[in-house]
Amino acid sequence: MFGSLWVGHGQQTGECGLWASRSLGTLRTMGSTSNNKSHRRSGLCTGVSALVALGVPVGGCGARSELRVPCAIPLESAQVEAVLLLDRSASMDLGAAGQPRSWQIVRRALDQALPSYNDLLQLGSVAFPAPRRSFDEPDCNTYTTLAVEPGLNHVDAVLANLDSLPRPEGGTPTYDALLHVADALLVHHVPEKTQFIILGTDGGPNCNPSITREMCVCPGSATPDPCIGHTGSGRGCLDGDRVIDEIAALRAEGIDTLIIGINTYGVLDDARESEALDAMAIAGGHPAASGPTRYLNATDEMSLVNGFAATLAPLARCHLHVPTDAFDPEAVTLRLGDGTIATRDLAHHDGWDWNNGDGLSIDLFGNTCTRAAHMNGTPALLAYSPYCAFFR
Fold it and tell me: Prior bond to 323 cis, omega within 30?
């Protein structure tokens, strides 16, 4: 738990009546099941001295209504679903003599990074491309369903599924893989649930047969020839534009995509592939605030461990749900778990903001998120408001 909201109102008496009426249904669901008034007050209300200590003036809507008990409404951790979409293309089988291959490095990093979030994130997974059942099959197939559906305590299932897969092979059909993951997430999307795709890949997307020779950008080559092949198909060409557009469309539907670059053997040193991942990270809504790349660029096992942890921690700890809408969302102040006040930041660089404008979902950004992830406090909405009467 990481913060609280203080609501300071100066509303007219007429609006107070409307607000109190609006609050009734919500408060009945929020209150303790106990009939002990002192128990309910200790759970959801603080004394006036708490506001005095914060320098909050006694007044506003509650004062005109003769309601002088400020409530503390807990902010809950939001329901967060995250699907790990992991690249198992042929380049993930690269490795130096006597050293683990990229896929093995990723698998060991996940062993260290995932368990801490087992009961904090509803985690699911799928890898791409799907293994070929014969040499005659295309090497750009994808699974049409998730290997592991999102859920709490699913880390063991995610790791077991990755262990069950054969050696990496094939192309990088990122576009089709994203479509299938999105379909699976949207089936059970609800407003109070936040959904993410964590895309771990060691290179730019390809596997788009509609790309022509004239359109082809072939990583590692000045000409399109190595990527076109004898059939004239552009499946080996960089498919950045289509994937970037799809990631942006998913964000508009409420699914953000975070990009982890698996650069253990230098595939992403190619500028064109790296630029594609930069654009994908920006479209996904969570680009790195600093550094040479906008995606998280991991070059070895430890940086992968740190990268997965840096990606997962904000998902688990920087998305908060407010269990009532009985306040003015434009008249609030966020207090973090250590008692400090966070600044509302509409640019989403460092601070907090409402997630979707409904006044029920809060996101933390930048250093504010980093700090909050390491705090032990109870987030609460400190409201000097009419509905406090129900806890007097």
Answer: no
